[in-house]
Amino acid sequence: MLKKVQVQDIAFQVYDRGSGPALLFVHGFPLDHTMWSGQLEAFPECRVIAPDLRGFGGTDPTGDSASMQRYADDLANLLDALDVGGRVCLCGLSMGGYVAWQFWRRHASRLAGLILCDTRAGVDSPQAAEDRRRNAQRVLTEGLGFLADLMMPRLFAADAQPEIVAATRAVIERTPGRGAAAGLLAMADRSDFVPLLPEVRIPSLVVCGERDVLTPAEEMRTMASAMPDARFVEVPSAGHMAPLESPGMVNAAIREFIRGLHRV
């Protein structure tokens, strides 16, 4: 199920299990495929694919730079390497959602549907972008401990299960510095998709934790309302990591959505 797949210059670590319509999970920053632990075995009717993006988890380090476009192209090339035919349903959280927008822009013919979890279509404020660039330099010299300190209070609802919180912090702290730095710079320079939302005409599911302070539910509800074929689901009591905090409700929403796409 967990294997290495060579894609051009990078050996990707990818979870690949099952058969049927492909369900592609794209993790957030600075995490890896394990953030989908509540989803990986929940869809036996699908081929579930969950890679570590370049520079994250068990995938080879990136170079000094990356972009959402490059991450999206990596996914398309990975699907080719895995001999995935037909269209896929792509589910991305946070940074994974930013990658999803670029996948839609660059590889729309490969998409059956989009699932956007706890993410946004807009870009950072100038100050937030500058903070990312500054943190990109820090992780190269200090590691990710300080970044975990900054992020953890904002990732989960206050009453999230301690073991899930601890496991997530451990993933952050072991993320390679080069991969994290490249990801920070890529997020700081990402494209604004708000003007393009009316053009996203493929079926979409927009999911957000009720207590998400990073990508608030009201912002995501507005985003979904601008998309022609999107349904919004708010997850009660969950924070930014809604799929980890409330896998039952998130999985039920995903299952209903993919059944509508594929009649599985």
**Structural class given helices, strands, pairing?**
alpha/beta
Count of distinct structural domains: 1
Please identify, by name, the CATH architecture.
3-Layer(aba) Sandwich
Unreliable spans:
none
**Number of alpha- plus pi-helical segments:** 9
Distance between the termini: 22 Å
How many beta-strand segments?
8
Beta-strand percentage range: 15-25%
Provide the CATH top-level class. Alpha Beta
For this structure, what is the CATH homologous superfamily?
Answer: Alpha/Beta hydrolase fold, catalytic domain
CATH topology type: Rossmann fold
Q: For the residues shown, what is the average pLDDT?
A: 96
In this structure, how is the largest beta sheet organized?
A: 8 strands, mixed
Taken from the alpha-carbon principal axes, the silhouette is globular
| SSE succession | EEEEHEHEHHHHEHEHH
User: In which range does the helix fraction lie?
Assistant: 40-55%
The spatial strand order of the largest sheet comes to 1-2-4-3-5-6-7-8
Tell me what you see in this structure.
This protein has an 8-stranded mixed beta sheet with strand order 1-2-4-3-5-6-7-8, sandwiched between helices. It has one domain: Rossmann fold. The chain has helices at residues 68-81, 95-107, 126-142, 145-155, 162-174, 177-188, 217-225, 242-245, 247-262; strands at 2-7, 10-17, 22-26, 47-51, 88-93, 111-117, 204-209, 230-235. The chain is built from 9 helices and 8 strands. With 264 residues, the protein is of the alpha/beta class. Helix 7 links the parallel strand 7 and strand 8. 41% of the residues lie in helices and 19% in strands.
